Amino acid sequence: MSGIVDAESPVAARQKLRISGIFPVSISECAPLPGKKDAHSASSILALFGRIRASEIAVITRGLATLLGAGFPLVAALETLVSQTKTATLKKVLAKVKDLVVEGNSFAFALSQFPGVFPPLYVNMAQAGEASGTLEIVLERLADMMEKQMDLGNRIRSALTYPIFMALLGCAVLFFLMTVIVPNIAAVFAEMGRALPAPTRLLIAASDLLKSFWWLFLVLLGGGTALFVRAKKTVRGREFLDGMTLRMPVVGPLVIRLATARFARTLGSLLENGVPLLKALDIVQNIVARAPLSKAVRDSRTEVEKGRSLADALVSHGVFPDLFVQMVKVGEQSGKLEAMLEKTAGIYEREVTSQVTRMTSLLEPVMILVMGVIVGGIVVSICLPIFEMNQLVF
């Protein structure tokens, strides 16, 4: 059996374990884990060197819910998870959470010391579960929600993998044709000393430009990427980029449906576990990724605080789909807002999945057609001088 204990020195750790009835064979010191006062540095360290995946959090959440449901005390359940966890960083975090609980802190408070691992949604749902005495049920629901969101993301990524691969492969083939094949053929044409057709001259000029200034395209691509990343880190840049994304003809409605599904499922889960509406909206506004939608949630929260219904507050901003607003309205009137939000999330998740599948099924033939047209144009441009020479011979 192995694990992690928080102590000032190896001697103190050995004494602490002996008091608990545990007699260790060997003790070694591990790297200290920052607390909440170093939350920002801890998050950056985790992101760079010990990134904890959402799937790992979902697994330990499911495991903790199962252990608590089987009658394990919280501390014993956390000790079991620490011994079973393989990721070193997550093992340290769980050990620290267990020590904080042993010291008399609440489970939610212990989780809140690691905001880079457990987001506010997780902490508040755990707090609601502790307050109501149903922590195992809350953790089970939280694991379900995390798994559904990961499943949706995995389906979208798997649907887009093949088109992206084909696009990259097509660009590589075109680059090879333009920088290797076309220059060799152009050298043959130059030795003939004949006037070339306009399409052939245009192809050779494009080949020379790409061969001589390929590095410039890389610089432009890198500069554009750096500018995009920098803009995403500023409020105005993020608002501009998100606004442009939401206004795009096909991508915009898809992004709105995806954000609405996440908003509905998260809000429904918070309300179902006893989190007050205003506090739940505070949490959800940080989960909705797009700036216009996040602003709409934040403004709606202010209007709800003044006594307005959630549906009326949302409809006044005009960014969320009409069906979602109507479902919220029906849920408020019937007193079943949580159930309506869960049902709406399921509807939009299925719509997003089917729409992405349709888009990818259309992208494949379009990409093949575009590649065929480009390669066919290159072949025709190369063959035109040969056809003209054959006509002169005959």
Task: List the main descriptive attributes of the protein structure presented here.
single chain; 394 residues; mainly alpha; Receptor-associated Protein; 2 domains; 17 helices; extended
Account of the 3D structure:
The protein is 78% helix and 0% strand. With 394 residues, it is mostly helical. The chain has 17 helices and no strands. The chain has two domains: 35-118, no CATH class; 151-394, Type II secretion system (T2SS), domain F (Receptor-associated Protein).
Helix-strand layout with pairing:
Layout: H1 10-19, H2 39-49, H3 54-69, H4 74-84, H5 88-102, H6 107-112, H7 120-132, H8 135-192, H9 198-212, H10 214-232, H11 235-247, H12 251-272, H13 277-284, H14 291-305, H15 310-315, H16 322-334, H17 337-393
Helix pairs in contact: 3-4, 3-8, 4-5, 7-8, 8-9, 8-12, 8-17, 9-17, 10-11, 11-12, 12-13, 12-17, 13-14, 16-17
Give the structure's gist in a few sentences.
By secondary structure, the protein is mainly alpha-helical. Helices cover 78% and strands 0% of the residues. The chain is built from 17 helices and no strands.
* Helical proportion, percent range: over 70%
Structural class estimated from helices and strands: mainly alpha
Q: Calculate the terminal CA-CA distance, rounded to whole Å.
A: 89 Å
CATH class of the largest domain: Mainly Alpha
What's the order of the H and E elements? HHHHHHHHHHHHHHHHH
Q: How many DSSP helices? A: 17
Largest sheet: none
Average pLDDT for all residues = 81
- Classified in CATH, the superfamily of the largest domain is Type II secretion system (T2SS), domain F
